[in-house]
């Protein structure tokens, strides 16, 4: 009986792990796509307003927010969705 319980537990664990992994992938991909679109829309504004800002920890986004009035319309739109 114990080997059967162990086997059932292992199969259930593997199944739940694969479901959790698939769910994580689905949530991660749209964020990756949004960031790619944001990068394309704001590339010129980053060069113009934030070229000396060190990347990481949200510094580029903070810089763009500080220069919001001077951003291209496409970049403003993407910033509103972040």
Please specify the SSE layout and strand pairing.
Layout: H1 2-49, H2 59-66, H3 73-81
Structure, described:
The chain is an all-alpha fold and 82 residues long. It has one domain (2-81). It has three helices and no strands. Helix 1 packs antiparallel against helix 3 (73-81). The chain starts with a helix and ends with a helix. Mean pLDDT is 79; it is low at 21-25. It comes from Bdellovibrio bacteriovorus. InterPro entries: Cys-rich_GLG1_repeat. Residues 1-22 form the signal peptide.
User: Number of DSSP helices?
Assistant: 3
**Relative strand content:** under 5%
Calculate the mean pLDDT score and round it: 79
Helix content, binned percent: over 70%
Principal-axis shape: elongated
Our Rg estimate from Cα atoms comes to: 22 Å
Low-confidence stretches: 21-25
Features:
82 residues; elongated; mainly alpha
Concise description?
The protein is mainly α. It has helices spanning 2-49, 59-66, 73-81. It has one domain.
